[in-house]
Structures are given as C-alpha cells and as structure tokens.
Amino acid sequence: MDSQDVQGVGGQGRGEQDAAPGPTPREPVDVLVVGAGFAGLYALHRLRGSGLTVRVLDAPESPGGTWAANRYPGARCDVQSFDYSFSFDEALQQEWSWSERYAAQGEILDYLRHVVDRFDLARDIESSTRVLSAVFDQATDEWELTTDRGETHRSRFVVMATGCLSVPRPPDIPGLGRFRGRWVHTADWPREGLDLTGLRVGLIGTGSSGVQFATAAAGVAGELLVFQRSPNYVLPAQNRPMDPEFERELKARYAEHRALAKQTTRGYPVPAYAGQKAALTTPAEERQEIFEAIWEHGGPVFTSVFTDLTVDEAANETAAEFVRQKIRQIVTDPVTAELLCPYDHPLGTRRPVLDTGYYPIFNRDDVTLVDVRTAPITEITPAGVRTTEAEYELDVIVFATGYDAMTGALLAMDIRGLDGVSLREEWADGPAAYLGVAMAGFPNLFTVTGPGSPSVLTNMVASIEQHVEWISDLVEHAHATGTRRIEAEPADQNRWVQHVLDRAEATLLPKANSWWTGANVPGKPRVFMPYVGGYAPYGQVLAEVSRDGYTGFSLTR
Ligand code: NAP
After folding, report:
1. How is the chain split among helix, strand and coil, in percent rounded to 5?
2. Contacting residues for 343 by C-beta, under 8 A, at least 6 apart
3. Which fold has domain 176-256+310-399?
4. CA-based nearest residue to 553, from 452, 448, 477, 502
5. How confident is the model at residue 186 (pLDDT cuts 50, 70, 90)?
C-alpha cells in the first residue's frame, strides 16, 4: 500500500472487482493451506511428506509472509536468528549461516526463498491468489474456498496459515487523501524502495515497526519528526555480527540447543540467571546488577529476568524505573527524555520493543519528538500533519500504526462452518478456539498459531513448528483411519477459552491497551488473545490430547 494504492490496506483483493461470474472449479486436493509465510511453507512441506496432495493459496505476489511485506528500512527480527529459523531439518540448519545475531528482513526473506527452493515448494504455491471465502459442505465434509481469481478449490482439510500480524491497520486520520506528499505504511513498503534522502519525514507510530524505522531513517532523512502518542519501553537488542567461533560451536550442538528450546516457555533458551529470583525479595543492589547484566545481554528476555515482573506491579515498577533511568541517561534533553518515559502501562504488558540505537537518535538536531498525546493529531493536511497545536509540513508520512492482529486475517475471509454459521458472527464478542487450533462448528479447519495458543508471546517459528506438526499428525491420523470429520467439542472449547482468560488474568498482561487485547482497533472486542501458559507447557497439553485419542475432538468416519 502506498499513496497510489489507498484501497490496498486491510485485505481487500483486486479480484472483488475482477472476479468473473461463475467461479471455475479446480482439481480437489487433500489439504488446502492459506498463506505462504513460515507457517504455510512448513505445512506444505510436512503434509506433502505424508503423501497428501497439498495446495497453498497466498495473496502476495511471492512467498515470505510478513518478511516479504515488511521491507521498511530497519526491519529486523527481535528473536535471535539462530532461534528464529526452522529446526525440522538438521541439514538446513547446518547449511544456512546468519550474518547477525538478529537477522534483518532481507536476510530472513532470502532464507525463506532458500527453503522454498531446497524443498521444491514453489510448484504447489499459487501466489497472487487471495481467498475470499471458505464454506464447509456438510454433504461431502469438504471445504470450498473461493479466490479473487474467480476459482474454487476443494479439500477435506484446510490449514489457515494466515499470520498473526498480516492485516495492517489503515491510518484512521482524516484528510489523508488530500496529502500532496507521499505516504506509506511500514507493513506495505514499496517494493521498488523509497529514497528518503534529504526529505522531511513524519513517522506516526512508535511500536516495534516505528522504532526500527526511526532508527534507520535518522540521518538519512533531511529531518525526521516522530509523532509519539504512547511511549514504549525500548530495550536494547545488542545486535552484532555473528561470531564465526560462536556459530561453529552452536552448529556442533544445534540439535541439543533446539531440544533445550523445546523445554522453555518462550521457545528459546534464556540466560541461566534469568527467572531464578523474585525482584522484590532480591536486595536492591543485587537487583540492579541483574538488570544491568540482562540489559547488556540484550533481547526480549529482559522481561523474564525476575519471576515476579509480569505478575506483581511493584516488582514490575523496579524494572520499569530501571529502563526510565537508562532513557534519562541516554537522551540529553530532559524534556524529550521524560516524554520518552512510559508510565501508563507496566513493562512487558505490551510487546517489548527492541532497538539498535533508538534513544540516541533524539540527541540529533535533525530528529524531533512530537508529543501527540497532549496535542493529538487532528488531520492530515495537503502539506503535512496538523495537531491541536501546530501544523508540520512533510514530504513523506510513514504510518507504523500496527495491525488488526491475530483475528484480522481470518475474519477478512468469509468463513462459514456447519449450517452456514459465519466465523465473523461466532467471534463477534472475541475469538473462541479449542487449544487455539480449531473452532467448534468449523470442522476440518485448523489455525496455525491462532488465538488461544501461545503464538505471539513466543518464538513464532518454534510455535509454528509445534502447531504444524501437531495438525499434520492429526490430518495424517484422519487420512489413515478414514476419518471424514474432525470437530472441536463446544464444551471443551469453552473450558479452554476460560482457562486462557484465567491464566491471563493472573498476570499483569491484560492491563495495557495493546494489540494483544485488540485495544488498538476501534470496535474490536477486548479479549486477551494469546495463551500465557508458555510454549513447552502448551506443547504438553497438545501431546496429551493426541496421546489420549484427541480428547475434546469428535472424529467421525
Ligand atoms: P503497534 O505495536 O501496534 O504500534 C502502533 C503504533 O501506532 C503505536 O505507537 C500507536 O500508538 C500508534 N498509532 C496508531 N494510530 C495512531 C494515531 N491515530 N495517532 C498516533 N499514533 C497512532 O504496531 P507495530 O509497531 O507494527 O508492531 C506490531 C507488532 O509486530 C509488534 O509488537 C511485534 O510483535 C511485531 N513486529 C516485530 C518486529 C520485530 O521482530 N522486531 C518488528 C515490527 C513489528 P498507541 O500506542 O498510542 O496506540
């Protein structure tokens, strides 16, 4: 999406205008997979390996999911590269080399292209194909998917690998259409690039995307204005080039490292001293030393360095104040420093933002922080951005305004289960899914890292592998036993949904306005969507369910 394609945001496909009347049916397959990011690619490989026929339908013009879309300057993963990668194939992880501790977008996309080639995936992926609807046919126990190419696809099973952060939130600020300059959303950066050299650039949004963009754009743009509504706690990634000695040593024990990761709550190991003590019972001096150590270590593990940070507000405040002190030390102008300090939510109750030099950019003469909490943005004018206090002239506006997360991509499609019931209606008060993987009333349809699973609170690639393997095993089991219909039981689903809510309520996490709770999208039901139980404990639940003959599912032959 850019200023030439305002309609593009929010999942509207071109084909709604183009679709020919009377869709053309395609050859049925065993499994249809929607999406070709990490999840869809692995689902294709894994299911195809079981002898099933699989077709992947993917809206973008080429595979890669979020890593193909987020081409904005500075885009980088906030999980270490050697963890944020597939573990299912030893040869793959041995042959691939990451150049940095945290991989940049381009390198992750190269990796995924390599995966596509290595496992010969492209022949079963149909790009530039947006699924508009998915309808369950009760007579045949099959799904029929209609695409914006004017075709229908049928299969017994459907795997929705549509991503948790794949539907960008369009800027909801009046006047955008009148802006004379160029505007872009970080999640839909122009493929041909956008040269910001010497331009006056305004950035709206200071979450992970905005912070990364600002850090990269400072010094390139002639002037950068950062419009901040809510400050976030920005933690250092401590990114660095991959040390060849470390890489050799890691690869010598990669399988062991992955096995260890599988026993963690995050889907990757944390330093040994993390999570051993409670902040409130640790003497202040020692607590400070531990905060300093984890700050130097870098990464999102900061929020689990003490056991009580996410459950006790007083404990959390010790960490929050540590970060505020760092901000005050780094940013020389005390007014700007104070504006950058978050006070409105406990640390870690919104997704922690990782940086590689964000706070220092505010010491530059060509970077200005504009506080749009006290003086909100009222409109986009032909010249730039107007707040209640001033108008700011701009050549380019960059929106890093986030996503309709976790449910957005699923609800962008018209999904209809038993008796034509629509998922949009079923989820009108918030998402409900059994184990975050299947929905009662929508047989044979599975979601990878769906709401109610640990997903975005963990290393996504690890959670994707966990889900894809479990779903594939279930589909293989159904295929082998002649099972036509797999359906989550409503009572078991209700129990799981309550468990997910109870676990979240026992923490501070639902307290903030975040995309985890849907609070960032006006009108979206406020429900804490991911499961806080952790990657490994959740994996045990999945394992028990399958070992006991898929408890909570009815399997009909
Ligand atoms: P986000 O965290 O939802 O941030 C959106 C930002 O836009 C917030 O600062 C929000 O302010 C602001 N905003 C929205 N509408 C606004 C308006 N009308 N006026 C002023 N400000 C407005 O979105 P994101 O940064 O794209 O990140 C989403 C998630 O994607 C991350 O949490 C992370 O999980 C993932 N991600 C990861 C990486 C990485 O791996 N490093 C990079 C990018 C994204 P308020 O807070 O006041 O609403």
Report:
1. 35, 20, 45
2. none
3. FAD/NAD(P)-binding domain (3.50.50)
4. 477
5. very high
The pLDDT tens digits for 388-409 are: 999 999 999 999 999 999 999 9
Which residues in the chain are classed under CATH 3.50.50.60? 24-167+405-556, 176-256+310-399
Distances (CA, A) of 10 to 135, 213, 413: 21, 21, 11
CA-CA distance, 155 to 14, in Å (whole number)?
24
* Ligand 1 atom at minimal distance to the Cα of residue 351: 32
Question: Residue 14's pLDDT band (boundaries 50, 70, 90)?
Answer: very low
Minimum CA distance residue for ligand 1 atom 37: 208
Task: Give me the residues paired with residue 134 across strands.
Answer: 145, 415
Question: Does the domain spanning 24-167+405-556 belong to CATH 3.40.50.2000?
Answer: no
- Nearest one of 225, 148, 188, 84 to 403, comparing CA atoms: 188
CB atoms closer than 10 angstroms to residue 494 = 13
Q: Which residue's alpha carbon is nearest to atom 15 within ligand 1?
A: 401
User: Which band of pLDDT confidence, cut at 50, 70 and 90, is reported for residue 3?
Assistant: very low
Q: What pLDDT does residue 21 have? A: 66
Q: Which bin fits 22, alpha (ψ -120 to 50), beta or left (φ > 0)?
A: left
Give the orientation angle of helix 313-330 with respect to helix 284-297, to 10 degrees: 60
Ligand 1: nearest atom to the Cα of 350:
32
DSSP code at position 253:
T
* CA 244 to centroid of ligand 1, rounded, Å: 34
What pLDDT digit, counting tens, does each position of 257-313 carry?
Answer: 999 999 999 999 998 888 899 999 999 999 999 999 999 999 999 999 999 999 999
Radius of gyration of the chain (CA): 23
352 in ligand 1 pocket by Cβ < 6 Å? no
Question: Tens digit of pLDDT for each residue in 506-547?
Answer: 999 998 999 999 999 999 999 999 999 999 999 999 999 999
Question: Which atom of ligand 1 is the closest one to the Cα of 187?
Answer: 26
How far apart, in whole angstroms, are the C-alpha atoms of residue 33 and residue 159?
A: 5
